[in-house]
Write a structure and sequence with these properties.
Strand 6 and strand 7 form a beta hairpin. This protein has one domain. Helix content is about 20%, strand content about 20%.
């Protein structure tokens, strides 16, 4: 039944509305209270910034490099713990290891402060005389490339300059071998490529990081899986012999230990 007009006055309707809202407070519009979160309450999974990659600077440098159209054919990732372990594995009874180590490191970009150096060619040398007659000598007077606890990759990999044989040699060292950079180019400016035993355009500070070429990783993986010191039939064996001037009566002089990046044959570089 409908109440009389007198009972449905505006004041009465308003009172009924207020009563209904009060009774149904839980279903009514609620106020949200924002409180600051203490840093200790934040979990790693809650913060997407944890996934930010340290590749921003390299990508920016490549994007602005005069060699951009060439470099975008590859990707670069900071060397991993498993790769460092492989580079520090022994060579005895594993004649494919010089090829694997050289292939994995070539094509890498060395990053030190604002310097970016692309390695186009390098040669590897065992640290043991029994494996390589051209091993790195040790004496109180000689510089050495062995990694230390102060290296970026502690006791596993170092990047140093060695002044030897009238050359300024850029060398990457592990516990089992050292790698001499014989062709490179700076990417962070208008630098000319360098070819030969000396590298004058890069100045490692002891904090150099290594970003490995994805193309080189794949090729090195195939060498490791094959476990034989055999080159791909498409490669020229002479191009993979180290440029040496002595000890030609030793077999280790002729191992395949000189490798080139995917960019080395490109006439733009």
């Amino acid at each position: 039944m409908i109440d009389s007009a007198e009972s449905n006055t505006p004041d009465k309707c308003l009172g009924q509305l207020k009563r209904l809202l009060k009774e149904n407070d839980e279903s009514a519009v609620k106020k949200l209270k924002f409180e600051p979160i203490h840093p200790d309450q934040i979990k790693d999974d809650d913060c997407q910034c944890q996934t930010v990659q340290p590749m921003t600077y390299i990508n920016h440098a490549i994007e602005n490099s005069q060699y951009k159209n060439v470099l975008i054919a590859d990707r670069f990732l900071e060397i991993s713990e498993s790769q460092l372990e492989s580079l520090n594995s022994h060579w005895r009874g594993r004649p494919y290891m010089p090829m694997f180590c050289a292939q994995l490191l070539v094509g890498s970009i060395l990053v030190d402060n604002e310097q970016l150096l692309l390695i186009n060619s390098l040669e590897v040398y065992s640290r043991y005389k029994s494996l390589d007659v051209h091993y790195e000598r040790f004496s109180p007077q000689d510089q050495v490339s062995t990694p230390t606890v102060n290296s970026t990759y502690k006791n596993l990999l170092s990047t140093v300059i060695m002044n030897h044989d009238s050359s300024r040699k850029l060398v990457i060292g592990t516990t089992k071998f050292n790698a001499l950079v014989v062709s490179s180019i700076r990417l962070d400016g208008a630098f000319k490529p360098e070819v030969g035993a000396s590298t004058f355009s890069f100045f490692p500070s002891g904090k150099t990081k290594v970003f490995v070429s994805e193309d080189s990783m794949k090729k090195a993986g195939r060498i490791l899986a094959d476990k034989r010191p055999h080159l791909d039939p498409t490669l020229d064996p002479a191009a993979h012999l180290r440029q040496l001037r002595s000890a030609f009566n030793f077999k280790s002089t002729f191992i395949y230990a000189r490798f080139h990046s995917m960019f080395a044959s490109n006439h733009f570089l």
